[in-house]
Amino acid sequence: MAEAAEAWTYGGVGGVEVAVDELExxxxxxxxxxxxLDAAARALAVAARLAGxxxxxxxxxxxxARAVGLGEAAAASAAESGRLDDLAxxxxxxxxxxxxxxxxxxxxxxxxxxxxxxxTDLPGIxxxxxxxxxxxxxxxxxxxxxxxxxxxxxxxxxxxxxxxxAITGLVNEPNTSAAMARLDDYDESARSLAxxxxxxxxxxxxxSGELETIVDLEAELTAAARAGSAAxxxxxxxxxxxxxxxxxxxxxAVEALGGAAVAIETREDASGRRHIVYIPGTQDWGxxxxxxxxxxxxxxxxxxxxxxxxxxxxxxxxxHGIGRTEPVMLAGHSQGGIIATLLAATVGATTxxxxxxxxxxxxxxxxxxxAALGPPRPGTGDALAAPRFTVTHVVTxxxxxxxxxxxxxxxxLHLENSRDLVPGLDGRTNPAAANRTTVVHDRRASTRADxxxxxxxxxxxxxxxxxxxxxxxxxxxxxxSSTAWRQGASPFLEPGPATLTAYRPAS
Length: 507
Description:
alpha/beta; 3 domains; ten-stranded mixed β-sheet; 12% strand
């Protein structure tokens, strides 16, 4: 786990897991060599016995020296085999110790951060509650209502100073993840919730329309670039995202389009076409809206099941005409990040496709990970029953993705604000594999001038404004792992002309 002030990373090419992988490879090689030496020692011992037999029977002239030499070589080989076995055992123990230390340090960081957050927030929460209760008394009794009007400053002294106190010391990713991890039947519970939501939507939600291209995209993006949001810093239409922070800004702008809009940025040069697919977060929190970026999609995606939203993204990619060999980066916020990770594990050309079943070969995930989207929805035929795209990179912001297996060929970057409860909703930390780098940023501890929100409330902690600043740390070169991911993604993040096309279902 590499660390830099208020942000740190685990996993990736600079992580302990990669060093351990190399040490484990060396351990295997030493054990193989030890077995070969042991076999040689046995063969030399047999030869020595045969040579000694010749001396005893007088069958050969002068074989004594040869027998002694063979015996000494056998002993030396056996001794070296033992030393290599011992060294391999020590290396294996070192692997286990490194991994255990990494897990302990990460857990300790989370525990200390959680305890510090609780101690920091409790006084403010108590003060807010006291003021809120005083406010109830002031504004709901005739006498109380008369006092603030006649005595200047009473209302300011009694009433809460904000709509919500700072609570992300209590309600945050580590604490949420710990709570979710205690659920023995997590997958079953999530699927039951998804089915209940689906039944309610079947009764109350209207049918979704056909996928269509947003015609006046420039006007809608201009309206989306609201003051103070990350969208205000999005690249101009016609220009590509040239940094990870600009990817977050454009993602914020696309999310503000609403209606489950998915946007695809395409640039073309001498090497061919490449694409960045922008996938929004949750937009429908009820069961009456036709928007597929809803709570049902959340419950399905986190356990690796298909949803209307995951299928909509694939349909948008197909409508855009993305070729099977054209490199693709999937970028998503919140629900969009879960779906991005899931699609990389299912419809990327390096995986088994939209077939379901076990994770693809080379996939890395923790216990109980999933990588199956199930069958295509009725009417789409077999178009999704085979690998469709070459997904090479994924970036997620504030997404619970620890239960999803990712193929080793897909370089994945997970941005997480430690004050954001959403990444902890799956009860799993992300695997620390060579192709999965997780950047953890404590936004409330940030001393940078780019910390406008301070992440004191769940809404602030989950917003893309903060994640754009976390992305800026990666652009600057946070750790070896994040820098390696950024360098690998550089073909997607070069300045220059690019098209941006957005798709969403007709309302």
